[in-house]
Amino acid sequence: MAEKGQQKSQIKSRERVSQRGEVFTAEREVNAMLDLVADECIRPDSRFLEPACGDGNFLSAILGRKLSFLVKKYGKSPRDFEKYSILAIGSLYGIDIMNDNVLACRERLYSLWDKQYTAVCRKNASSRAREATQFIISRNIICGNALTLMCVDDSGNDTPSPIVFSEWALIDPIHMQRTDYTMAGLLASEGGLFGRGGGIADEGGTFLKRYVTHYKKVQEDGEQSVSERL
Ligand SMILES: C[S@@+](CC[C@H](N)C(=O)[O-])C[C@H]1O[C@@H](n2cnc3c(N)ncnc32)[C@H](O)[C@@H]1O
How many CB atoms are closer than 10 A to CB 155? Predict the structure, then answer.
């Protein structure tokens, strides 16, 4: 990864360009595009999907903006910073067909978040919050085919599993609700996770799984769904 101020290469290899069209967007273009929706980029719960995310050039820039906003607003309130920065992580979604890009994107988002989290929360920082963040990132950044909407294996071939995304919503000061939807279902329903309404509720979209838990415990309750609708 390029150091700050150093230009990151837009191409890793000719082979990857010809096989997967992998040409990364330069930081200047990323920021020029994000400036067009600057207000959305600072709202912690404003959702973004990068459907061919690579190592997350757009997602990491958006996270950087959200975190800067949160540092300004909650820099002296570690508890609030923790909660809203986890919500911000939960608002970012990515799909890439190449597993190494997915792993790099997850790592990049986590490092960005953890750097600010550690600086703001210091002795109040907890391993539970870090685990919750890693869990959310692992669910939101998916190795899949954005055209067929299926998860893929290490060779980039479709598996029988559809891409499933989780909606993360704070429903009161400490509780987070996770609701899972297939990507295909989200695209078919108008409000959608990424629609203008901001939430999915159950309008049209059929959810697969839903539970409510403390925002720092999403990873612990992750596999014990309160409601399964498959
Ligand atoms: C042009 S790069 C863009 C990366 C990043 N969004 C950026 O702007 O820097 C395209 C990315 O799409 C991925 N890709 C190609 N076909 C895909 C598909 N069918 N589904 C998901 N990702 C795909 C490649 O692995 C590559 O990382």
Answer: 8
pTM for this entry? 0.91
Report d(CA 67, CA 230) in Å as an integer.
36
Q: Tokens representing 184?
A: 């295909």
- Which atom of ligand 1 lies at the shortest distance from residue 20's CA? 15
| CA distance linking residue 30 with residue 37, whole number of Å | 11
Residue 202 has pLDDT above 60, yes or no: no
> What pLDDT, in 10s, does the model give residues 96-129?
999 999 999 999 999 999 999 999 999 999 999 9
Q: Give, for ligand 1, the residue of 22, 25, 49, 165 to mutate: max count of ligand atoms closer than 8 Å to Cβ.
A: 22
For the chain, which residues make up each domain, given as ranges? 14-228
| DSSP assignment letter at 143 | E
Does residue 110 contact residue 141 with C-beta atoms inside 8 Å? no
Extract the tokens encoding 196.
């203008």
Residue pointed to by tokens 């669910």: 139
68 closest CA partner among 52, 88, 50, 83: 88
* Encoded tokens for 185: 């279902």
Per DSSP, the residues of 94-135 read: EEES-HHHHHHHHHHHHHHHHHHHHHHHGGG--HHHHHHHHH
Say yes or no: CB of residue 56 within 6 Å of ligand 1. Answer: no
What is the C-alpha to C-alpha distance for residues 98 and 123, in angstroms, rounded to an integer? 37
CA distances from 53 to 17, 56, 95, 189, 229 (A): 14, 5, 6, 23, 29
